[in-house]
Write a structure and sequence with these properties.
With about 100 residues, the chain is mainly alpha-helical. It contains five helices and no strands. Helix 3 runs antiparallel to helix 4.
Length: about 100
């Protein structure tokens, strides 16, 4: 039932063939794996001195594995993809005065 209202990982898993208990088991397994990956990435971001990246990753991971996530929460998934694809740090800022 919750999958009908969710925009998290639970919804596409509910579309798979099989029973609801099977869907629930797959969702728990995928959520656990994704959660572990997210925690490792958050720890890396914090170790690299980027608390904003860590907070963004933690929030977005919670949106994706939550039983129910509303569509407007997924707005933050974009920054998460960029943070996960990189090394966990923000890109360096360059002083524009040096480029004149």
């Amino acid at each position: 039932f919750a999958a009908d209202f969710s925009n998290s990982l639970r919804r596409p898993i509910a579309w798979l063939p099989g029973s609801k208990p099977a869907h629930d088991a797959v969702w728990v397994a995928v959520s656990l794996a994704f959660g572990i990956f997210a925690v490792l990435r958050v720890l890396r971001a914090l170790a690299l001195g980027s608390p904003l990246a860590g907070i963004t990753l933690a929030a977005c991971a919670s949106y994706l594995i939550s039983p129910i996530t509303w569509a407007h929460h997924l707005f933050f998934a974009g920054p998460m993809v960029l943070l996960v694809a990189g090394d966990g740090r923000s890109r360096p800022r360059h002083d524009c005065r040096h480029h004149r």
